[in-house]
Amino acid sequence: MLNEKCEECGIGRCQATVVPFLSSMGARMLVFPNAPAAKCDMCGHVAYDPRFLLALQQMFTQLQAESQAARRRHQRISDRPSAWTPARRSG
Fold it and tell me: How many domains in the chain?
């Protein structure tokens, strides 16, 4: 994609650069301030590096799997009957 004709405008050339990558995840915002990308020197269109996007996807997949595993572990623990019982007061 670098130094190729821009897919957006068809006139400019794409140059390697770094740009911010912003993505919302539910109520949170994910920010990578220096994401690798190609930017058109005419229209400014930005195309993120496919390897960067693939690495993000793999990271999110792994985090999601770890989060689901942690929830399952927590659920199994909370489903167990409690060994603790309150002391009875003699009255």
Answer: 1
